Amino acid sequence: MSVILEKVLVTGVNGFVAKNILKSLITQYEIIGVSVEDVNMTGFDITYIQADIADFDNISRIFEEYKPDFVIHLAAIVHKKSMLADYDAFYKINYLASENIFKNCVSNHVKKILFSSTVEVYDLPENAEIFENSTINPPSDYGKTKIMAEKSLIETAQDSGLNYAVMRFAPVYSKEFMLNIDRRIYLKKNKILYYFGKGDYFFNMCSVNNIVDFISAFIEKDHVSGIYNISDSETFTVKQIVLLEKEKTNSIVIKMPYYLTVLAISIVEFVITKLLRKKSVITRYNIDKIFKCNIFNNHRALTVVNELKWNIKNTIYS
Questions:
Q1: pLDDT value, residue 258
Q2: Least confident stretch, 167-176, 192-201, 205-214, 236-245
Q3: Which of 146, 115, 295 lies closest to 218 in space, CA to CA?
Q4: 3-state DSSP call for residue 240?
Q5: CB within 8 A of 247, min separation 6: which ones?
Q6: CA-to-CA distance for 241 and 260, rounded, in angstroms?
Q7: Whole-number average pLDDT of the chain
Q8: How many CB atoms lie under 10 A from the CB of residue 200?
Q9: Share above pLDDT 70 across residues of the chain, in percent, rounded to a whole number
Q10: Element (H, E) at 243
Q11: Are 56 and 14 contacting, i.e. CB atoms less than 8 angstroms apart?
Q12: Full-model pTM
């Protein structure tokens, strides 16, 4: 006699985070994966649907046909695409399409929805511990449209009783996906590492394994809803990370003079934005972010999952 598995609908299923989640859930649930891309999901026993989440009618049809028990909504326009996207694109995908998904969760009696958001919705002063109720002040279109979607989900849940998790991810990494770390420690990948000053500043990031553990626990736990910072419980200084990476790659290490670097970047940004009137990928804002040294308090997430045990060392270097 075959066992009828509960269904999980995952948007953005072709993404890095989603593929890690699939590895954990695929033996316990029937997975319906949605992505705008025409891809081969060989190796994953799922129902794959190519669909644009901005196609509201098609998304509604998918909900009505498959009747998912749980929804993990990961699809979004993020920073790596932001140079090619204007505010309207962020608004359409990150907010309007998300709102449509939330409404479909209610009308199709979904038990729980997990929505991926970002710590970039916060106002981030230097050396601050950030809680879920800390000041909201997103600096980017990505963050602005994510907080709009968060508010829509919370209002929808309050009106309907839908159980939800807003997951505010710190910058995510894995052993295979190092972009959020590499951009903070490498001048040239696998060749030249760097840090400023003594290298005693740190990054509070998020191993994708912690996301997987949280999502698995949230689906199984009864009567939980809310906003959750998802981040590593343990942080490392940039010098510690650089030395671990040096041992792995045998790269050279350069100690960068902070003030001269900031001056040079400020000049380049001024020339590109003011004189050439173009959008600069090199900004003082990106440098300042490196030195924020914020801690994203994850104690609320720990009421759902027993521990967030993964960190940079045991995810990448063990």
A1: 75
A2: 192-201
A3: 115
A4: helix
A5: none
A6: 23
A7: 90
A8: 12
A9: 93
A10: helix 238-249
A11: no
A12: 0.91
Domains by residue range for the chain, with CATH: 7-177+205-236+296-312 (3.40.50.720)
The pairing of beta strand 129-130 with beta strand 206-207:
unpaired
* Radius of gyration from C-alpha coordinates of the chain: 20
Under a CB-based contact definition with an 8 Å cutoff, are residues 9 and 74 in contact?
no
Q: Which residues on neighbouring strands pair with residue 34, listed in sequence order?
A: 11, 49
| Helix/strand/coil (H/E/C) assignment for every residue in 37-95 | CCCCCCCCCCEEEECCCCCHHHHHHHHHHHCCCEEEECCCCCHHHHHHCCHHHHHHHHH
Token duo for residue 135: 């000041």
Q: What is the pLDDT of residue 269?
A: 74
Q: Is 188 helix (H, G, I), strand (E, B) or coil?
A: strand
Sequence-ordered strand ranges (E) for 183-299: 186-188, 192-196, 202-203, 206-207, 226-230, 236-237, 252-256, 295-296
Contact 251, 192 (CB under 8 A): yes
Of the candidates 144, 17, 141, 10, which has an alpha carbon nearest to the alpha carbon of residue 79?
141
Neighbours of 32 (CB within 10 A): 22
Residue 137 has pLDDT above 60, yes or no: yes
| Coil vs helix vs strand at 123 | coil
